[in-house]
Amino acid sequence: MPSIFIQIPSYRDFELNKTIASAVVNASGLNKLSFGIHNCVLFEGEIEIKTDYPQWVNIRSTVSVAPKGIGVNISRYIANEFYDGEDYYFQIDSHMRFVKDWDTTLIDGIFKYQSMGLTKPLITQYPPAYTYKDNGTEKHDYIEPFYQCGIWFGHNVQQFKDTLIPTQTAKVISDSCGFIKSISGGNIFTLGEFAQIKPNKKIAFWGEEPLTAARAFTHGFDLVMPFVHSVSHLYCGEQPFSKVRRHHVWKDFPEIWKTLDSESKQEYKRIFSERVVGEGALGTQRTLDEYEEFAGLNFKDKQIF
To answer: How confident is the model at residue 244 (pLDDT cuts 50, 70, 90)?
Structure first.
């Protein structure tokens, strides 16, 4: 039975158990699901992970009590450590919903791209939203017919000059598959060897996506869009806490977060300005120059094309 590793970082997220349940209930049952979860809470027992699932589902998790373990990439790093040789890798967030047979749909997508000559396709995209109505029921905003939303870099020139972090935005570009310039941190499906590109623990939040994109690309992965939607995501937007129930670490620990954020941006800038290759940084199968040409970025001259 093929296996899928599902990496989930969670910070005080009451959607976590619903996310796991949605993945299991909507899976085909033809693939083994192995979850690797870092559950960061404010106190022991705040959120308990349910484990009563079929035999083809394996839940592996660990708990940190904040402020220990805060920051998106240290959380992803801890979750990633549960990887145990699974065939496929699915990096998601803790507030997601899944469509029916999402697992076979995504695996079929890998096969299709490989038949086109891409050895290591990495399927990613900002997924459509699910929200809560006033009566507490879920609303899923899947787009029909399906249109591809590429990830494009915004033209906030000053931010890019100051931090080397480009803004990312979704833009409908076609009704077919194709390459994508960057990644959605909460929606990456690819081969299991992606686990070897361990998340850089120093990246607190901002810059996670362009750094992951550049690291994946220089490690030989091709960034591509899905053929069809497989998940939806709970975005905060203007929804009140009573609906989204999304805690944010920078609000719970503002002073600690300020230091983490500063150190994170320094690490990000160091990697791109010094063009660092190695652990936590860029790979050797492609160069940063090649990624810049592909993505329309110039980290030396601080330009976005």
So the answer is: low
Question: Can you give the length of the chain in residues?
Answer: 305
Query: What CA–CA distance (Å, rounded) separates 59 from 67?
Result: 24
Mean pLDDT of the chain: 92
**What domains sit in the chain, N to C, each tagged with a CATH number?**
3-304 (3.90.550.10)
- Predicted TM-score (pTM) of the model is 0.94
The answer for residues whose C-beta is within 8 angstroms of residue 17's C-beta and 6 or more apart is: 47, 49, 50
For 205, residues 6+ apart whose C-beta sits below 8 A from its C-beta are: 71, 72, 73, 250, 261, 264
Distances (CA, A) of 95 to 23, 91, 143, 299, 300: 11, 12, 19, 33, 36
Helix (H) or strand (E) holding 210: helix 208-218
Residue in the structure block whose two tokens are 């373990």: 69
Burial class (CB in 10 A: 0-12, 13-18, 19+), 17: middle
Angle between helices 208-218 and 254-273 (to 10 degrees): 30
Residue appearing with tokens 């901002």:
206
